[in-house]
Amino acid sequence: MTDFLELCKARYSVRSFSDRKVEPEKLEKILEAGRVAPTAVNFQPQVIYVLQSPDAVAKMASVTPYMFHAPQALLVCYDEDICWKNRKHEDEGHSAGEMDATIVLTHMMLQAWELGIGSCWVCSFDFKATRQLFNLPLNIKPVALMPIGYAAPDGVASDRHPKRKPLSETVRYL
Q: pTM for this structure?
């Protein structure tokens, strides 16, 4: 079994994909990793659209330059009608949906990497156009796009990948 911390350190955002699609059984395993991710009060508000038809991939590529020619992508959303809301928050109803969807996405990215499949976390896309292109109901909120596939030979980690702040700069003990 792969050491989890080593898996986390090795994974990088793939920004150049081959045209090879992810095998259905591997895709199911990636989706299952998202299904078992923790969500607030276990409400599981995530809604994941598997963009794999040439038409769906082309539509997504029309609203972001960050598809990186991936043959597939996961559009990670949440259902605002289902997600837990913190009624004690100063905004009276702060939604956990975006956090839930992000945790789901992280589980799927790490599972993909363990299977030898690259991905990239993208939130730079036209949300309004995406909603229209895919006829998303108003209660379904897009959070992120995850292009997935096998890295192209030139699909290497950014030179920024290994640069991490020391824990002393990001952790506070109280």
A: 0.92
